[in-house]
Amino acid sequence: MPRPEPERRTRVDLAVTALISAAIIVAALIVWWTSPSRATDAEPAVGAAPVPTAVTGTPSALAEAWRAPDAAAGHPLVVGGTVITADGSTVLGHDFRTGEVRWSYERGVPLCAATAAFGHAVAVYRTGDGCSEVTAVDADSGRRGPQRSSNSDDTMRLLTGEDRVTAVGTTRIESWRSDLVRTVEYGRVDAPVHADSDPRPGCSIDSAAASGTRIAVLERCPGDAGVRLTVMTATPDDASQPDVLGSQVLGIDGAPLQAARVVAVSGEHTAVVAPDGQGTALLVYDASVARESLTPLADGTAIDRVVVGARSGPVITFWNGASTVALDARTLAVRWRMPGTLGPGTSMASALLVPTAEGLAVAGPWDGSVRRTIPVDRTADGAVGTAGPVVPGTAGNVVLEQRGGTLVALTPVPPPE
User: Fold this and answer.
1) Keyword Membrane, does the record have it (predicted)?
2) CA 327, 331, 334, 336 torsion: positive or negative?
3) Which of 59-63, 262-266, 294-298 has the lowest mean pLDDT?
4) Residue ranges of domains in the chain, CATH in brackets
5) What distance in Å separates the CA atoms of residue 100 and residue 64, rounded to the nearest whole number?
6) In terms of Cα–Cα distance, which of 286, 203, 189 is closest to 241?
């Protein structure tokens, strides 16, 4: 049987093949050029992170041990013996004792925000699509973990609530679980899957708070006479369909509120700080946004200066620009106020450390009674050091202070022999 003649390729065939090959190469180069990996410089840790020992008391004296630029988080980030800083385009994991860099992760684009959750540093980077690129870095090893891309705003802050991270932009909110899969999407939706994905289009988000079960949002919507509080579950059945429990325009004595700030959400309760006509007040609402209580605050509150601290044992603290206010962590009722402070509190052993002009007040968490003050000199940090906000945290026996865009670590000074 005669063998078939081989198929002859014409010049056109060869040209088409060359064009297809070139297109594939160009597409691969584009994918590589725009991929996170190309612009990433990562140096994992060598060896395990140090393990802080249990702290049984507060130090009698502190001295600065190290400091580092840290503008992307707004508060100290700690996972075990690793202190995380995020500044510019770089996230660093430090030995909590010395500040030595254990690992680094850098992208060729600027950071929008960073936080610590699920044993990882979670960093959000700004690209041409806003704050869209999200990366988790293992806090112990420095190795890259889950990543995601999101349709986000140009500015963002991150809230950590138990097993979720909530990203708050100016027009939309997302929550992510530990693998960075989205569990909640609220606000602006560019390509809605469901007709009711954005029930009030055109709203802007003023502030938000999150827990493991609830997300509370203060927003301004077209046609509303004042700010609106919306409360939803943190774990809806469908991420693209928010499970809203209640939504109301807030007011006092029939007058709609024009300014307010969500400071905490716990269980069925949401706490909001707002002007009350004579000063400021703390208003607590249930999940349906029915008001439960209104407590006048002793001094004025600058809404734009409110800084909320992490839960510290039985209380959640926030700073109103002049005083530290402690809320019952379960009911969000006001437990006590401490005037003349520079920021919220943080727990250490059985005490609460509250920054003041003189240093750190050592207070009782339940009643705010000051037992003593640990001297701290912050004059080198300018206005932030003398007027706040100073946001404290701890890593073992090391006290951390966020002073503007700088993180400062203070270590105990041994008593003189």
Assistant:
1) yes
2) negative
3) 294-298
4) 70-149 (2.40.10.480), 150-297 (2.130.10.10), 300-411 (2.40.10.480)
5) 14
6) 189
